[in-house]
Amino acid sequence: MFIIERSESSKHENYVFLKAFFSNIARQLDVATDKIRIGVITYNTDAYTTFTLDQYMTPTEISYQIMKLPEGTDKRYMIDNALAYAKTTFFTAANGDRASAANYYVFVIDGVRSGASIQGEFITKAWPNTIFAIGKILVYTKTIASLATL
Fold first, then answer.
1. Global pTM?
2. Using CA atoms in the order 83, 104, 114, 77, what is the torsion angle rounded to 10 degrees?
């Protein structure tokens, strides 16, 4: 599952780069009903299901939907709300989650924001190896090699 910020900074070129980054990851994964499923949560002050794990079943569809994400307008960036939403609300059977499949969280934070990089380090220490926080090309994850084995 990808967690993508949609705030006022999503009007900038970094947002286009961010969407392209996630879009490229999606195109490289073996997405199928019985293999990898990708869903997207967007967030600002709150978190929102943009599309569920079973809504799109090809890398091309997912890539296209990510690139279509609109700009945001909110000034707050609450990654902690997005992660809590993912853990408690998003990963459910109703959203296409499978009990037998591992749940992976991939998100990017901007280290310039107050506390964002510290928050990212704290999150990766407190959560299992299934979360990947990427901040300005700086990877805070325990085992990035695991991402390649999705």
1. 0.77
2. -50
* Mean pLDDT along residues 6-13: 68
| Other CB atoms within 10 Å distance of the CB of residue 90 | 26
Across the range 15-43, mean pLDDT stands at 90
Helix (H, G, I), strand (E, B) or coil at 69: coil
Mean predicted confidence (pLDDT) in 92-121:
74
- Look at the chain and count its residues: 150
CA dihedral 137, 60, 6, 49 (to 10 degrees): -120
In angstroms, rounded to a whole number, what is the distance separating the alpha carbons of residues 66 and 71?
Answer: 12
Residue 5 tokens read as 């910020």
Is residue 108 within 8 Å of residue 139, measured between CB atoms? no
**Tokens coding 115:** 């506390």
